[in-house]
C-alpha cells in the first residue's frame, strides 16, 4: 500500500504514515503500525455489517523521517496553543524512547519562532475533549498514551500571578448536552470576588471570539458525580469564586447554535484512491 501511494505522491514509502478514520465522524483516529505484509483489507474495518463511507478512508501523512526510526524512538504530534484557542500550530517531535517530558518541552521551544516566553510551558493530554491530564517535566515519555492528543501552552499571566484565594478550574466545550463535548479543554483562573460579567470578558479574550459569536455561548457549572448535572449561570453579578469547586466539577461552555472546533482534518482535495 505504501509503495503505491508513495509512487503516486512521488515520495519515499518509508516516510508515509497511515491513520484510520473514525467510523462515525470520518476524522483521523488511530495510527496504523508498520508491518511489512500488511494488506489494504486489513487496514480497513472488517465488513461484517453495513458501514458508512468513512470506513473506506485512510489518512496519510508524509513525515520528515523514516518510520523505521519509530522502532527506537517515539513520535509525537503536539498542538501548540497561542494567546487564544484559535491560534494553533502543529509541531512534530521525534525523541528516543528513554526521554522525559522536559525533552519534549525543549523540542517544542526549538520548533517555535517566539521572541521569548514570560512563564513556563505546560504539556497536557486530552481525552473525550474534556479530561485534561498535565504531564510533569521529569515524567518519562512512556507515560504518554499511544495516539494521545497532546497540547502545549504557555501558562497564562492570570495563572502565574494568581492570588492565594484564586482558583484554577477546568473548562470544556459542549453543544446542548454536557456529554456532547468538542474542542479544546483548558484551565482558567477564577479570581476571588470577581463578578461574572468581568469573568466573561476574560473568557472572550481567551477564546478569541467576536461579540456576536460569544453572545451565543452559555455558561454552566457541570458536576459529574454521582451523575452529570448542569446548572446554567445567568446572573451577571454572580461570583464564581464563591462556588465550591470540587474535583468533579467543570465549567462548561454551551454552544447552542454553533460548534467551535479546533483539530486536524483531512483534505479530500489531496486524496489518493487505491484499490485491492
From TrEMBL:
Keyword check for Protease: yes
EC number: 3.4.19.12
Occurrences of domain Ubiquitin carboxyl-terminal hydrolase C-terminal (ranges): 58-259
Top-rank taxon, per record: Eukaryota
Keyword match Amino-acid biosynthesis: no
Catalytic activity from the UniProt record: Thiol-dependent hydrolysis of ester, thioester, amide, peptide and isopeptide bonds formed by the C-terminal Gly of ubiquitin (a 76-residue protein attached to proteins as an intracellular targeting signal)
GO molecular function: cysteine-type deubiquitinase activity
An example Gene Ontology biological process: proteolysis
Keywords: Hydrolase, Protease, Thiol protease, Ubl conjugation pathway
Family per record: Belongs to the peptidase C19 family.
Name of this protein: ubiquitinyl hydrolase 1
